[in-house]
Amino acid sequence: MVRIPKQVYRVRISFLTDTLGLSPANSEVYQRYVKKRLYEEIEKLEKMLRKKKLSEEEREILERRLERLRADSEVEEFMPEVSDRLSVFARDRDGYLIFKNYQILGYFKEIANNFYKGGLRNKISKYVDIYGDILKDVYREVYFERNGERLTQPDDLLERPLRAYTPSGYVVSIVISEVLRPPLELQFDIKVVGSKSLHDITGDLLREMLEYGKEISGLSQWRTAGWGKFEVKEFYELDLDNPELNGEKPKRVKLKMKS
Q1: Does the predicted model carry a pTM greater than 0.90?
Q2: Which of 103, 128, 125, 122 is CA-nearest to residue 213?
Q3: Per residue in 144-182, pLDDT tens?
Q4: Residue 169 class from Cβ within 10 Å (0-12 exposed, 13-18 middle, 19+ buried)?
Q5: Is omega for the bond preceding 183 within 30 degrees of 0, making it cis?
Q6: d(C-alpha 182, C-alpha 198), whole Å
Q7: What angle separates helix 27-49 from helix 120-127, to the nearest 10 degrees?
Q8: Measured between alpha carbons, how far is 149 from 135 in angstroms, rounded to an integer?
């Protein structure tokens, strides 16, 4: 088996503006949405693996990612049963409010697609993954926290009209979203796999991409309209090979920002 190089960066962000729930509250709708995205990603990886010009390292990385996605496709996502017109924050099985790891990965893909060249979006799809806490093997769940405590309830509900055109004319409906307000934080880990011959995704680059969350586009719904903006409070590399690493005091590697 090929030994795959990897780097892991721990990130803590603090929200500057209110954040809206993103997930459809209807469980059946949500399951279809998640499964559709997973199957699309699986199909894309299978297509990549059919290419003949892949190094042994690259093939190993893609096969491992494909195995993870196939396992995820068999897991039923948990969502509370509430109104069809309500968009909510996802919950874990204990009722804590969470962001899904693929929602944060989607942020990086969106920023790469809008502001970077050189196929960075595709590189992120292949070589970057998000963990809620890699030291505790928490993969999907990224927990919302306030003053160090996990949250179980939104702060408010936002109602707004949605105008849509139909064959019989314009129709206005009311949509509702759960709201979380600052102070509010998320902590997650970014894992980058593969050698420098495959990609140029560095800690400096990832840190730079997170800066767009403060200036341009945040997380979740209405992110381009000022909702869900955030700033980076912590960003450092985890040394997973350090035998003294205990999750509380990991070795920090200073990263230099581009000027």
Answers
A1: no
A2: 103
A3: 999 999 999 999 999 877 676 677 777 666 678 899 999
A4: exposed
A5: yes
A6: 39
A7: 100
A8: 19
